[in-house]
Specification:
Layout lengths: L15 H5 L15 E7 L5 E7 L1 H5 L3 E5 L1 H4 L20 E2 L5 E7 L2 H10 L1 E6 L6 H4 L15 E9 L2 H6 L3 E8 L12 E6 L5 E5 L4 H12 L6 E4 L15 H13 L3 E4 L2 H7 L5 E10 L5 E13 L5 H10 L9 E10 L14 H18 L3 H7 L19 H11 L2 H4 L7 E11 L14 E7 L6 E5 L8 H13 L6 E4 L16 H28 L6 E4 L2 E4 L6 H12 L11 E2 H12 L2 E7 L19 E12 L6 E11 L6 H20 L29 E7 L21 H13 L10 H11 L1
Parallel strand pairs: 1-12, 10-11, 14-15, 18-19, 25-26
Antiparallel strand pairs: 1-5, 2-4, 2-6, 3-5, 7-15, 8-13, 9-10, 9-12, 13-14, 16-24, 17-18, 17-23, 20-21, 21-22, 24-25
């Protein structure tokens, strides 16, 4: 039985009714009087000089209201990290990938926009292009950015302990290489936005984004207007998964066009443009060596990573750091060395996608653990348990395990899957595999250097005390953060959930850095709890003073305010209520005050009842270069066991069953936790078995549609057993931490380890198409 009134339950989602009935309004559903439509002209070439842009014919087309190019908007550089501002809104000297932005058009309808785009004439001088990350770093390769010779966008070199000496002292060293492919997030709703300037010169941008705050800052910078003159409003969002975590050319183009025309301007990407903008999963190449003692003790890990970043940086610096830092846990290591490089290529830029930076390298590492266990003659589960960190441990790269239910997760999936009776005992063509995952619960530092709070929340109680309004800039993108914040507020104030309203995703409400790095439950949750505590404190302070009682004797429970935990002198309370309420409503009739009555009294005494909350992490990380990346107030962890059937004649893989356990601290909403776990499994399954963005020899995407880029459907998903493991996270609100991204980490390696168990073929390249696996089976024979 839960000790909580609202938390740790299966409360329904706040946005469930409007989504289920089709009343939810997404960005593309919004229209305004006098609205214009806009579109972007994109490069057909992967690498070329821009010799001349002629917009004269397009400007003469009836219905065209504005056309902008680089000469109209300026050459202000922007990006995600100030350390790598390498983008301009429109290309001005050359284009760097098929899809690079050249110009934007605003017109009275979409047909006119498309015709105008076709009339813009651009003269190019085509340049040699490079599409392979290894070729890009070779001497003599075509150069994308003059300031980054050798196309080396970012590199990381970190070592903790003497790795070479540690490896030499090991009884066994096992090597492994692994290659994944570029993947698309495949969210159902394409990016869409509408921009409008008011008569005071303030820009309001309604946009499908995960990060209203960062969009506000970037748009203000590029349009050269004060941040306070930009308001970003996030409507309902149909999925994000990372690629909607930064300002995009659409948002900035609409801003410029709205200012120039004096009218609202709307733009929505086509599905092909979603693929061209990308900012999704990098292609990774990994080389790893793991050294162990003969008793199975892990000693040292050497890890090399090469990332294909595409034409621009986006989140790439963080990505290449994450790839190494997140392998510091959850296993104990005595030494670790990491060398990571991210190369520019003439393809769309890659960025952040669910499990940012950690998914491919976790897949490689967890395969390597199984390979090592096999050589040692150990059970893969027991090998992991032997080397597992526990709460209170510190990783070799100084990540603090303030809570870690990893051991409990492994034991849960071991027992929940009947591992002991299946491993090594399944018939030919059937296999079972295990893997673990580890991820941050909020980035320890903002993207830009600042002492800003990561989240602020305002809670305002209605005049009659009947409704508690939570106002936050946080981004509800389908993960359930609005419901989570409502539950935290309700729990703190001791009121039913249906007394809470949440308004979110608006930069005019409060500062919140957005939905990325699995930060909202912990960070926005902290700010929400503090704001609710402030409201509660004001009510207590007023009642205690008015009644002459000890503040500690006042408690909030089930929508009521109790004195000394139960009945008190309520005749005095009633008379006091009548006096202060001045006949506004009937006095209380029970032997307590309802929250509404207490809040109303506080309003009469002190005016509008408002509480504010804030959160930023304490100082985190070590003193070494790059220590800030990978640090977090807390870490989530997970384990999975997957069972598969492989058709040995065709290589076709069927995932039969998944058993998944995740440590989320306290599960604020158990249904939402399970939903995030299952969504992660579905996404990981697709990335493992069939997802790959394919290019032709000129850098054009061949499968830029959801008809040709295959993602999992309900028919691909097996039965899933979701097991919630609860540890108490001291740095989280009510002990809660992440579940949004960490649950994807074990999925790919668990499937790959199960395939090996079924076939004896170790897959080292994704996706595991039936053709690729069949050739592996054939080669083994």
């Amino acid at each position: 039985m839960s000790d909580y009134q609202v938390l740790n339950s299966r409360a329904p989602r706040l946005d469930g009714p409007v989504k289920a009935t089709g009343r939810a309004k997404y960005a593309d559903d919004i229209s305004m009087p006098g609205m214009l439509y806009a579109g972007i002209l994109q490069s057909p070439l992967a690498h070329a000089k821009i010799l001349h842009i002629d917009t004269s014919k397009a400007k003469k087309l009836p219905g065209v209201k504005a056309i902008i190019t680089a000469k109209d908007v300026g050459l202000i550089k922007y990006g995600v990290s100030p350390a790598r501002y390498d983008e301009t809104l429109f290309a001005f000297d050359k284009v760097r990938y098929v899809g690079d932005e050249i110009a934007a058009v605003a017109a009275v309808d979409q047909a006119t926009v498309q015709e105008a785009l076709s009339l813009i004439k651009v003269d190019y001088e085509e340049l040699p292009a490079v599409f392979d990350m290894f070729e890009a770093m070779k001497e003599g390769a075509p150069q994308l950015h003059a300031e980054f010779p050798g196309n080396l966008n970012a590199e990381v070199h970190q070592e903790f302990g003497d790795t070479e000496a540690a490896l030499q002292g090991c009884d066994l060293v096992v090597d492994h290489t692994f290659l994944n492919k570029r993947q698309d997030a495949a969210f159902i709703e394409p990016q869409s936005c509408i921009a409008v300037f008011d008569l005071d010169g303030k820009l309001t941008l309604h946009t499908s984004t995960q990060v209203p705050h960062y969009v506000m800052r970037t748009v203000a910078m590029v349009l050269q207007i004060p941040v306070g003159n930009v308001r970003v409003v996030k409507p309902y969002v149909g999925g994000g998964f990372g690629p909607k975590c930064e300002a995009n050319p659409m948002e900035m183009s609409c801003g410029f066009l709205a200012r120039q025309t004096g009218r609202p301007v709307k733009m929505t990407y086509s599905r092909e443009q979603v693929f061209l903008h990308s900012r999704a999963r990098h292609q990774f190449y990994a080389e790893m060596s793991l050294g162990v003692k003969k008793d199975g003790t892990m000693v040292a890990l050497k890890n090399k990573a090469v990332l294909d970043g595409g034409a621009y940086t986006s989140f790439g610096i963080a990505t290449v750091y994450y790839s190494g830092s997140l392998l510091g846990g959850p296993y104990k290591l005595q030494a670790m060395k990491y060398d990571g490089m991210r190369a520019y290529t003439n393809k769309p830029a890659c960025g952040a996608q669910r499990g940012h930076g950690g998914v491919a390298h976790r897949a490689a590492f967890e395969q390597l653990l199984d390979m090592t266990a096999e050589k040692l003659g150990m059970d893969p589960v027991e090998f992991r348990l032997k080397n597992m960190m526990v709460t209170g441990d510190m990783t070799i790269n100084e990540l603090d395990m303030s809570s870690l239910g990893m051991k409990e997760c492994i034991e849960a999936v071991r027992d929940g899957s009947d591992w002991s009776n299946k491993k090594g005992k399944l018939p030919k063509g059937k296999g079972i595999g295990v893997a673990c995952g580890f991820f941050v619960s909020g980035a320890g530092y903002p993207i830009y250097r600042s002492d800003t709070y990561h989240s602020t929340v305002v809670i305002k109680v209605s005049e009659d005390g009947g409704i508690v309004n939570v106002l936050t800039g946080s981004a509800e993108i389908g993960q359930g953060s609005d419901t989570t914040m409502a539950m935290i507020a309700a729990e703190t104030l001791g009121i039913p959930l249906d007394h809470v309203r949440v308004t979110s995703g608006d930069t005019d409400l409060s500062v919140d850095l957005g939905a990325y790095s699995s930060r909202q439950t912990l960070m926005t949750g902290h700010a929400t709890k503090e704001a609710a505590e402030q409201v509660r404190g004001r009510i207590v302070e007023y009642l205690a003073e008015a009644m002459g009682c000890d503040p500690s004797s006042i408690s909030f429970k089930n929508g009521n305010v109790l004195f000394d935990g139960g009945p008190g002198n309520f005749e005095q309370i009633r008379s006091f209520y009548i006096k202060e309420h001045r006949g506004w409503t009937d006095p209380p009739t029970g032997d307590y005050l309802t929250f509404r009555e207490a809040a109303r009294l506080a309003f009469i005494k002190g005016g509008t009842l408002v509480g504010t909350g804030k959160y930023k992490p304490p100082r985190l990380g070590g003193s070494y270069k790059g220590a800030a990346v990978g640090t977090s107030p807390a870490y989530g962890c997970s384990a999975q066991v997957v069972e598969v059937t492989v058709d040995l004649e065709t290589g076709e893989v069927t995932v039969d069953k998944m058993t998944d356990a995740h440590d989320c601290g306290l599960a604020i909403n158990r249904t939402l936790v399970e939903g995030q776990m299952q969504g992660s499994l579905s996404m990981g399954l697709g990335e493992c078995l069939f997802e790959e963005v394919k290019f032709d020899s000129r850098g054009r995407i061949l499968n830029a549609s959801l008809g040709e880029y295959r993602i999992p459907t309900a028919l691909d998903m097996p039965n899933v057993k979701s097991i919630i493991v609860e540890s108490h996270e001291p740095n989280g609100p009510y002990g809660a931490k992440e579940v949004g991204e960490g649950a994807i980490m074990p999925t790919i390696p668990a499937i790959l380890n199960a395939i090996y168990d079924a076939t004896g073929v170790r897959v080292t390249e994704l996706p595991v198409s039936s053709e690729r696996l069949f050739m592996g089976i054939k080669a083994k024979k």
